[in-house]
Amino acid sequence: MASEAGEPLWRDALGERLRRLRHRRGRTLGDVARRAGVSPQYLSEIERGVKEPSSEMIAAVAGALDVTLVDLTLGVAADLRAARTPASARAHAGPTAWALAA
Predict the structure, then answer these.
(1) Is residue 5 in some structural domain?
(2) What's the pLDDT score for residue 102?
(3) Is 2 a member of any domain?
(4) Which spans are transmembrane here (predicted)?
């Protein structure tokens, strides 16, 4: 979902990043929720961008996924930046352009 300005919302980008991390690690919703100390339903709502979790909750889920809060935040920021960049520009940008963008 995007804001009225057309930009993705933080909670949506965060949820997508958390879900991708969980899937890459082969972890179930229940397992990660249990490790983070939340219900599977609440974690599902975070992943779907329905809930706006507190910083403490984000840190707990990040820890349950064995990722640092800094790395998680940088990943979400990169996802948001990529969403703002037109596909044609991304297709033509080389590694130097992306290094400068970061």
Answers:
(1) no
(2) 46
(3) no
(4) none
Helices 55-64, 29-36: axis angle to 10 degrees equals: 120
Which residue do the tokens 């352009």 mark? 97
79: domain CATH number is: 1.10.260.40
Residue that is written with structure tokens 């179930």 in the block: 28
Examine residue 22 and state whether it is found in any structural domain, yes or no. Answer: yes
Q: CA 62, CA 64: separation in Å to the nearest integer?
A: 5
Q: Which domain holds residue 60?
A: 10-101
pLDDT tens for the 102 residues of the chain, in order: 555 557 789 999 999 999 999 999 999 999 999 999 999 999 999 999 999 999 999 999 999 999 999 999 999 999 999 988 665 444 545 554 444 444
Number of domains in the chain: 1
